[in-house]
């Protein structure tokens, strides 16, 4: 059972770290994108069992005119229409993404921290020590004379009845 716990904690921690690295890789690929300012002109609502997620619809102006995209990163807080936000735009202008601190913190830093914690817990898990069982399946108590080699261990129910 101990090995299952170790494997479970370490595997879950490793999975969290892999997901954090994959998310950071997607941001690393965007390092060559241009930083701009855009304006929130609307939002889409995604409903699921957890509630509503609002993905902002952002518009910015480039050489081709006005371009609009919907951010992949949403929030439970409804975006403010007309608010100016920082965005990243790829070289072709086909893709864009809103820059918020929560993007990197929530999807990179937090999984990395939790992954490391789970791995540390998994590695430091120790097997449970089995206790002696009496004839009735009850834990055994030892009397003071046990240390001198006197009495034999007795189940708790018999030890208390003396």
Walk me through this protein's architecture.
Helices cover 36% and strands 28% of the residues. It is of the alpha+beta class and 162 residues long. The strands form two sheets. It has a five-stranded antiparallel beta sheet, with no helix packed on it. It has a two-stranded antiparallel ribbon with strand order 6-7. Helix 1 (2-29) packs antiparallel against helix 2. The mean pLDDT is 77. Residues 132-148 have a biased composition (Polar residues). Residues 153-162 have a biased composition (Basic and acidic residues). Residues 131-162 are annotated as: Disordered. The chain crosses the membrane at residues 6-27, 105-125.
Provide the descriptors you would attach to this structure in a database record.
162 residues, alpha+beta, 2 domains, single chain, two-stranded antiparallel sheet, five-stranded antiparallel β-sheet, elongated, 3 helices
